[in-house]
Amino acid sequence: METAKNLKRRNALGRGLGALLQQTEPLNETELTQVPSINSVSDIDVDTIETNPFQPRTSFDRDALNELAESIRVQGIIQPITVRQLDRDHYQLISGERRLQASKLAGLKEIPAYVRTANDQQMLEMALIENIQRENLNAMEIALSYQRLISECSLKQEELGERVGKNRATVNNYLRLLKLPPDIQAALRDNRLSMGHARAIINVENIEAQLAIFHKIIEEDLSVRAVENMVRNLAEESGQKKKKERKPLRMEYTQLQYKLSSFLSTKVTLKSNDKNQGEIRIPFVSEDDLNRILEILSLS
What we know:
Family: Belongs to the ParB family.
Number of domains: 2
CATH architecture of the largest domain: Alpha-Beta Complex
Number of strands: 7
GO biological process, one term: chromosome segregation
Structural class: alpha/beta
Distance between the termini: 84 Å
Strand content: 5-15%
GO molecular function: DNA binding
Pfam family, one: HTH_ParB
Domain ParB-like N-terminal: 42-132
């Protein structure tokens, strides 16, 4: 027969992180003295961290995990994981499953982690917001703090903006930095790259191109304006390339386009895809021109 405590804990399953935190009894005073400051990052022995039972993902791409492990060997952990302390030298993962697994593959014995106690969500939110107000934070520190407020405190971007006094666009610009390759994130963290440079780079979709621009910035000490121009030129070249790669119209469609243009005395554009779906575009320059076309088509 289940005890009341076990039943209470079992009923929390499936209700996510909030339930996990609420259903856990707080540590006693002796154990609490072992918990690092909530504003600090502590190095935790990877063997003392158990996985999160509420982790929705149960499998990870092995190649991607190996790539992350190699990046960690070179750059270290850029974004600390988050754990909560169950008792002395015993932790449970809250977020960062991939980073934890990749760190083990990389041979790390310890991993930087934010350590939380049970039932401290409000305390965490206040501490993070207070931390964000500091003037000496770099762009990555701000981005990571914003992400923690969203993921761990269940804030929406609008709510986050209100909490930190920023509009949604500014918050989103920082969050987008977390999608950049690790090398670029590390440069932001180490103040070798500015927020302006990163905002320009992130508009490039291809990761290899992002890294190529990044290395050029470092090697040639490019200004933000120069990088913005480079990105703009790449976008134009890409657009022209896609335009050239468009499949030409079938011969019968080209002939039909020519006949329609001649018949209506205006340039008619016909587009078609591989499924023979498309559109016919007939431009007009004035209301009189439109009426002329409609009259030819016997629609007026």
